[in-house]
């Protein structure tokens, strides 16, 4: 997602979505919370057994230690076997969720979203929808470093949702279903601003961030159980897991989507300086709306961080534009996508 995290919540419900739009950092983390909430949050201080009745002596048993070692070795082998490289950023991560499972789950979520926003979708021939589609086509056409040709094979579909009560947002589902809320249009301001958003969402899809998140969930659950046997406190576990694993991982994926997004935006010959301006406007929006967060416990990097990153990556993006010939015929490449959105509002 553009602001609320790339994770898909495949058991999407209206409650979860409501939480999302109340700026809950990440709906899937809410589910994660609830996984552990049924545990008691007290601890007996007898130094032997915690509230689960589980003794730490358990780990001193040589047989158990051997099993843990074998299990660890098997896990390491499984992890290495399933290592996958993200496009453009080349980051390696473990993804073991098969694509067909990812697509099936995404399809279920897609139907739920269509049902949830029924009556609020702009028609396909609406100027907003057509504009988003044309920008999206330009992005896909421009993607150069897509070794598997995946971007061009995906059946991309853009949905524009008009609901003035929903905060500015956009998100993508595996399978190429992109949702953009019209409330983000004034911040996007022009085609290149919209291209910033759409490129970011496309990057989430190309990097398979949803599958990466799903692949990690069993590990987080296991870690939660192990921690609980040690601490006996679900509160400490939640805080530890969120601050050490979940939030940084989510921020890493968001930053990666920003990076890949900027690179594919540059390959599409958009005005990449507009990405910087867009993030400036987004920060101003956050300041105006009073929504600020403490980055350490946030699923997204702070807007200042994103702004700084984009600024740092711009020279590389410009080089990329040169290499794909964006500057060879500037009039053709840049001029046709320079219409502002001001007239629409
Ligand atoms: Zn995102």
From TrEMBL:
One of its GO terms (molecular function) is metal ion binding. The keyword NAD does not apply. Gene3D superfamilies: Metalloproteases ('zincins'), catalytic domain. GO terms for biological process: mitochondrial protein catabolic process; mitochondrial protein processing; mitochondrial protein quality control; mitochondrial respiratory chain complex assembly; TOR signaling. CDD domains: M48C_Oma1_like (cd07331). GO terms for cellular component: mitochondrial inner membrane. Keywords: Hydrolase, Metal-binding, Metalloprotease, Protease, Zinc. This is Peptidase M48 domain-containing protein. It comes from Ascoidea rubescens DSM 1968.
